[in-house]
Recover the amino acids of this structure.
């Protein structure tokens, strides 16, 4: 298993072979702990777009999903302030549920072209801890 630094470096350099959801969550937690919410959002947005583009799939970048996931992950981090990133994932296993955002968004809104290119707030419930 990669250390946090190795994972972040591989993500930022787009040298990881792939970047599954669990790695997204872990990188977001590392960024939040190191750079705060605003810094983490900027780094995650830039990084996911760069990674997807480097892998020939820039269309995979999704503005609303990226920000909504960061908000959800940050809520878990705030609720567990004394835990390291890996321990937060263990304490909040629902963060690994790729469909967790559907608790807050209708499928139509989340999958819309507008949500892909610009922030759209949730339409079912306010994003909170899962």
């Amino acid at each position: 298993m990669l250390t946090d630094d190795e994972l972040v470096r591989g993500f930022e350099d787009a040298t990881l072979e792939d970047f599954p959801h669990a790695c997204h969550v872990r990188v977001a937690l590392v960024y939040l702990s190191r750079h705060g919410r605003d810094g983490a959002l900027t780094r995650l947005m830039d990084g996911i777009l760069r990674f997807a583009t480097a892998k020939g799939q820039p269309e995979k970048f999704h503005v609303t999903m990226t920000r909504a996931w960061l908000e959800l992950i940050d809520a878990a981090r705030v609720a567990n302030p004394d835990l390291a990133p890996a321990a937060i994932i263990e304490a909040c296993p629902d963060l690994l549920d790729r469909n967790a955002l559907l608790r807050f968004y209708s499928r139509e809104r989340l999958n819309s072209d507008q949500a892909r290119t610009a922030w759209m707030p949730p339409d079912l419930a306010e994003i909170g801890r899962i």
Summary: The chain has a mean pLDDT of 95. The chain has six helices and no strands.
